TrEMBL record:
Entry's family note: Belongs to the methyltransferase superfamily. RsmI family.
GO cellular component: cytoplasm
Name recorded for this polypeptide: Ribosomal RNA small subunit methyltransferase I
Species of the source: Bombilactobacillus mellifer
Function according to Swiss-Prot or TrEMBL: Catalyzes the 2'-O-methylation of the ribose of cytidine 1402 (C1402) in 16S rRNA.
């Protein structure tokens, strides 16, 4: 049988595609991509001629038997998402589960991931941490999730779009209070990379005169306990204002 390779792709800076990732994408028979047009740009940049097939949340059930059959016939397949690690707030897990069930080897490559990249520079306690990803949209699910997150004593990590970041900060304040330290990691690995550190109230105030732009990872300190940072939120925010202005 063939192997399923899970290949992380850059979250902004193309130089972050590893040498092994390039070799793997070149050597496999087929690349299963979340968005083939998006991935084609990456393949063109690295002059990788490998053929693609789309694999995303809307065609998962149809694609799974096709991809498993190809793997069983001896073809190697690489799976990629639009950015970062497949399966992490992205398509992937169903294919991995199907391969595990069919005893097809699954070979993960290490590489770019927004959550861990943000965490290591956040200044928040990095261990233990809890990764959540995108908050649910449905009101009742959202409330339940927020109540759950409010109990955590560890740093937790959310993904958010620029359109919803202010609303999410407001939701967090209603359950966590205004003083909880948070860090926003914006546009990681890109030209406008910046870290915004402060209390929930301070970060909310920052957005009153700065429109949110780009992609964000939102990291929240756990509730009082050993995992909580000791720096003064307002000092750190001041430092970051200049960073953002620079
Ligand atoms: N699979 C990806 C990973 O491993 O990080 C995550 C994909 S998820 C659909 C996209 C979200 O990841 C964005 O809404 C944002 O929260 C976060 N993200 C991705 N790239 C980012 C970047 N360059 N800077 C900040 N956040 C980023």
């Amino acid at each position: 049988t063939g192997c399923l390779y899970l290949v992380p792709t850059p979250i902004g800076n193309l130089d972050d595609l590893s040498v092994r990732a390039v070799k793997t994408l070149q050597q496999v028979a087929l690349i299963a991509a979340e968005d083939t047009r998006n991935t084609q740009k990456l393949l063109n940049h690295f002059q990788i001629p490998t053929k693609q097939i789309s694999f995303h949340e809307h065609n998962t059930q149809q694609r799974l038997p096709q991809l498993v059959a190809l793997l069983q016939s001896g073809q190697d397949i690489a799976q990629v998402s639009d950015a970062g690690m497949p399966s992490i707030s992205d398509p992937g897990k169903e294919l991995v589960q199907a391969c595990v069930a069919a005893k097809i080897p699954v070979i993960p490559l290490p590489g770019p991931n927004a959550a861990l990249t943000a965490l290591i520079a956040s200044g928040l306690s990095p261990q233990p941490f809890y990764f959540y990803g995108f908050l649910p949209r449905k009101k009742s699910d959202l409330q339940q999730t927020l109540n759950f997150l409010a109990q955590l004593t560890t740093t937790f990590i959310l993904y958010e779009s620029p359109y919803r970041i202010q609303q999410t900060i407001a939701h967090l304040q209603t359950v966590l209070g205004s003083q909880r330290p948070i860090v926003l990691a914006r546009e990681l690995t890109k030209i406008h990379e910046a870290f915004l550190r402060g209390s929930l109230a301070e970060v909310q105030a920052y957005f009153h005169d700065h429109a949110p732009r780009g992609e964000y990872v939102l990291l929240v300190a756990g509730k009082s306990g050993p995992a909580v940072v000791t720096w003064s939120a307002s000092q750190v925010l001041a430092q970051v204002h200049t960073e953002i202005a620079a």
